[in-house]
Amino acid sequence: MDLIDNQETVFIGSSEQMFLREIGKFPVLSPEEEKELFIRYKKGDLSAKEELILKNLKLVVFLARKMPKSNLELVDKIHEGVFGLEKAIDKYDVDLGYKFSTYATRWIHQEIYRSVKKNKKVVSVSINMEEKLVRYRKAAHELTKTLGRIPSNEEIAKKLEVSVQDVERYKYFDESELSLNMPIGDHSFEEFGDFIIDEDYNLEGEVIRKINSQNFINLINSLDEPNVYKIVMYLRYGFYDNQVYTMPDIANYLGVTKQRIIRIIIYMQEVIATHPYFSKDNSVNLKKSEIINSLNIEDFFLKVKIEDIVDSLSDLNANERSYIYSKFGPNLDLKTTVGKEELDEKLGRIIRKMKNIITHKKRSTKALLKKLK
Fold first, then answer.
1. Which of 9, 81, 249, 283 is the most buried (most CB within 10 A)?
2. Domain ranges of the chain
3. How confident is the model over 195-221, as pLDDT tens digits?
4. Domain 124-174 belongs to what topology?
């Protein structure tokens, strides 16, 4: 894999080019080597973790280069990606059987994306770009009304007669700097935040979240409320494309004020909070304490109809489906294939933080490379 793109060399110095070439020399671990390193690290061998980081830097560079252009240098993106790689190494359970690179990709991408978003606020927008953003917002608004959903980048590009890459640039400059967790008033229904992907990711929690998300979408669809109210809920809580939109984002798309979006969300929360689906006697109770943070997936499955689980399998990725099948068999008979103590131990390892490597959290990729020489 060539880690240095000729189109990018004008943006990085000779030392950074040398750094990327050095990373490209690291050999890829075989599955057996990777498993052995994880076993050593779980036993307390910190040198095994360092080797896992170094041998997976190619993945970090690959993902860093895939991110949209920003004012953040490539080497800085790689640096942030290494923090995500470290988190993935800490949380990965080799006994679950899925590839580490697949698991790590999410964590690496998340760290880089957060850093890029955090640094967007220093990007200045020219008058020419602002005019283009006005056209972009208008096109997005009109298409949303016509289609009854958020338009794709391709659809917006066709309407504006520009390239998809141009639309991606407009979205980049148009994204709000407001926090995704900003309060929405005294009447907010606290459990709604539980449906957003948590930073403390674990495979079981993600499976539960996705099953609940599909059930929750079915609930929203069943409500006798205006379609625009439902669209607001899809966007605000990540049910449209797994991206959580801010209220200013939604307001721009729908062509209304942010205050109007706040009122819609508060109203819908009150409607849903009083819906029988959330009653304690119902078969599915979606409170965070019972669902997202639960380490006992059997208890959760006993509360969910088997049809709901089967219907939700298509929303899971291959690793998550394999996890379900490995625990409950191909027929989902709700009988675990491992003992409860062994199961609890495995699930605990997924989310347990390894306190003995805190001092290594701030090590940069350059420091790691220097140590290797």
1. 81
2. 9-121+354-372, 124-174, 190-337
3. 333 333 444 444 445 555 666 677 777
4. Arc Repressor Mutant, subunit A (1.10.10)
